Amino acid sequence: MYLPLMVGVDGSGPSLRAVDWAADEALLHGLPLLVLFASRWERYEGDALARELGKPSARVLADDILRAAAGRARRRHTDLVVTTETVPDEAEHALVSAGRNASMIVLGSRGRSGFADRLLGSVCRTVAAGSDCPVVVLRGDHDNRADGGRRDGLVVGIGEAPAAVLRFAFTEARARHAPLTAVRAWRCPTPETVDSPLLTGEPARVYEQRAAEELEAALEDAPADVTVRRHTAEGPARSVLPGASAEADLLVIGRRTHARLGRVAHTVLHRSSCPVVIVPERPRER
Hints:
Elements lengths: L4 E4 L4 H17 L3 E6 L3 H12 L3 H20 L5 E6 L3 H8 L5 E5 L5 H17 L4 E4 L15 E4 L5 H14 L3 E7 L15 H17 L9 E7 L2 H8 L5 E6 L7 H9 L4 E5 L6
Parallel strand pairs: 1-2, 1-4, 2-3, 4-5, 6-7, 6-9, 7-8, 9-10
Antiparallel strand pairs: 5-10
C-alpha cells in the first residue's frame, strides 16, 4: 500500500502553488495526493474572509478552499488520484499527525497576509521539526514544478548521519533524471583560518582533504544510474547550503533530532533560493 503525498492548504496563493508542486511530485512517484485543510486556521483569517464573500466562514474555509485546491490538482494531472480532508485542529498538530500516514508533506512558505506570513512560517518550522516523513517547504523563485530541471539538478547537504537524506536524494534525482550535487562543508578550527597571514595554507588543505574523504565515504554506495557530483566548500553549512541552492531545483537536508530544527535547517529554510526538503533521520518509506 502506497502512502499518499500530502499538501497543506489555507487558500492563499503560495499554498495553491504548493498544490501544483505536490501534484507533480505525486505523479512523478505514482502516489495519490491528499489535500489537507486544518479548520482552526479559521481563527486567524476565516471570519473576515467570510464577511467579504457573504458566506459562513466554515463553508468558505473548508468546502470552497478544498474544492479549489483539489480541482487545481486534477486539472493539472487528470489521472491523479486526489482526496481531501478537513481536520479540526491547529495547523501544526493536524499536519504532523496526518504526516504519520503520509509519504511526504508539502507546504507553501507564506499565507494570505502579513500576519498569516508569520503564522504559516511558524507552521512550516513546527511541521519540519516534528514530522515523521520528509517535509518540503517551497522557498525561492521556483517554477512550481517538482520535475522542473530548468536549473542545475538537485543538491544534498552531507552531514554527520547522511544515510536517510542520501536515500531520499537518490530517489528524487532518479525520478527526475537529474544530476545530484552532494555538498560537504568544512571549516578550519580557530585560529587556523584560511585567511590567516600566520599560516602557510597547509592546515586548510588538510581540513579540505578530510571533508573530501568524508564525502567520498558517504557516497560509496551511490547508485550507478544517478549522476553524482562532489563538492566541498569552506564555511559553515548554514552559509554554504543556501549558496548552493541558487542554481538548484531542490535542496535536500537532514534532521537528526525530533521536534527541533538545528541551526542549519532553520537558516536554510529562511535563506534557500529553491524548495527545501527536510528529511528526518528515519523517515517513513514511500
